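B., you asked whether I could sanity-check this one before it goes into the benchmark set. Here's the sequence:
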Amino acid sequence: MIDPVLEMPGDASAPDIGSGVIGSVPRISIQVFCQQQDTAATIESASQDRRLSRAHTSINLGGVPGAVTHFGSSPTPNLLIIECMGSREAVLAELGQLAQVCDAGTKVIVIGHLNDVILYRELMREGVSEYIVAPVSQLQIIESISNLYNDPEASPVGRVISFFATRGGSGSSTLAHNVGWAISEHLEQDVIVIDLDLPFGTAGLNFNQDPPQGIAEALSSPDRMDDVLLERLLTRCSDRLSLFAAPGAIDRECEFDAESLDSIIDAVRHHVPTIIIDVPHVWTAWSKSVLLRSDEIVITAAPDLASLRNAKNLIDLAKASRPNDFEPRLVLNQVGVPKRPEISPADFAKALELSPSLIVPHDPQLFGTAANNGQMIEELAENSKTAEGVRHLAGLVSGRAEAPAKSSKSILGPLLGKLPFRKEAS
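And here's what the prediction gave me:
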């Protein structure tokens, strides 16, 4: 048996995603006219990012001359991205030609090869929306486009954190609810917990609530979602935490599509800084869409072979589909069940090439009592290692806390340091 201690290694590595949350871009048309193949390839990759998934992007070579020819007989899109490689005078002359065929209301981003303040000021004076100096990165493109369609003076768009289990019974829902509660209590952020397991959801039970309506009513008429309806359908659990509960009944079939769910989540994002989504263990178009469009993904796994296989598939999908986002957070739960053969945390980490953000020991007394009482873990055992770990994870996924440095002081550090793949990298 292992000691009933929650182990907390350092944060998983992540690409440079900048500071803050980059907002999603609405359904717009974007046309790009590049002069270099590398620039076109970068923009093509950026267009696959979840935040640009709603936009329709067309990429062409030919620069300004190609754009002038094309738009001489066609309307210009919502956003036009142009690459210019000439001198200051040449760039201004080319854009003067483009202005003759550019419709009013079209935003223009110029990618130039001159780091020239005078050129930048001239372009801004002429009405260009943004000037980026090549070579460009995917993140620069995504952030520049997002900034054009998200008001920096407006309230920030809420951060979506989705929890998903590698198999049923892994404890993902319990973790999601406790993390949401910790964010509301300790980080003092307003939180909405959305339970998407319509027939069997447990959020109402875990928060000791019996709401008469919730997410099912919202999904039945997503086009009606406004501030008044949202307030009526939410169940307030505390001053800072509200619940979009599932009906938890099987007397009716609950079917919906990804687009309807996306519209509900978008509406909620403009009301609170943090949205916790408890995604049931089903694989559908809408569950995949929710995960890949989230700002953070938390995968909860048990230490067995089926969970390892499923976790690898999920992590590989997330990495391939979200190259500009954090890697998923991995939580190993129910570790140390007596007499049960288990895959060790070290072997789990080695197989996935991803260190767990948390390792939660098997504690049926604590979790069982909390579930039966409709309480959170911290309400029963505030000073326990499990409660400490939930607070740690809440800080990580909310973006309000830095992960501890990877060092030998980490409880898992000595263990992971013995792995062969770690030695080869050193």
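One thing to flag: The chain has 18 helices and 13 strands. Otherwise nothing jumped out at me.
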